[in-house]
Amino acid sequence: MVGKSKWYLFEITGRQYALDIMEVLFEKPKRFSELTSACPIEKTRSKRLRELEEANLVEAESQKVKKRNFIFYKLTKSGEKLIKYLINFKLE
Q: What is the model's pTM?
C-alpha cells in the first residue's frame, strides 16, 4: 500500500460487497463459488477479491480436497483485525 492515499482502505472497503465478502471470509476460508451469498454478481465478486488482495486484506491459497486442488480465499491478519474491529465497533 506504499504510495496509496491515506483513505485507501476506506475506498476499497467502502465499495459495494467488499465488507460483505470480508464478513463471510471471517467465518472460514471459502471458494469463489461459495461467496455468491456475499456478492451474487460474478464479475463484481472477482473484481472485489482482486482489490481486497491488492490491499492485503484477502489472500488466495491452494488447498487439496479429495485429490483435487482448489483455490480458497481467506482473510489476512490485517483483514481479520479490520473486520473484528468493524464488527465490534459501536456508535455511542
A: 0.89
